[in-house]
């Protein structure tokens, strides 16, 4: 990769998740301070949890019941208009869902589509399984990089032996698959760091995630997402 080339950072998101939203806003800051280009992909909390609904709290099950619509709209938009529309659409949806606290209704989705320059008819995909095969394939591509015990977001960058290639071999939870990608869940952070703080978190995250056999750093969250 040349010195002027940007490192692709593949980012899998579900627009439902407030923590993925925080991480995505951090990644937009990273693009400003490091030679990184985010490539957006869809994953689904509904798909991730569909086989363990009986084990989940009722409140979370109710939340997941509303998760299909937005993610189906995102995958339909990608399939019909290309992957480059996902970033603007995610921003339009996330700003409404998280920053403004709007309900995940058809009206809200239509407003987001229009802001992203996409046809309002894509909102019909919320109640359709027409693109569920593609949704599941996109979800699987991301989750296979990190394993089933995590959620959204998943981030992957080329490993040192990949020469920019986008390998999709599973590494069971993080770290680097030989010749493949450095992939990880998170980071979970609030508020989204900006400027040099964003750069420091990016550098540190890549440093620990690149260590073979490294899996987890964690501490109890003491505050919810801070949207700004």
UniProtKB/TrEMBL annotation:
Gene3D superfamilies tied to this protein: Glutaredoxin (3.40.30.10)
Database matches in InterPro entries: Rv2466c-like, Thioredoxin-like_sf
A Pfam family recorded for this sequence: Rv2466c-like
Coiled-coil residues: none
Protein name in UniProt: DsbA family protein
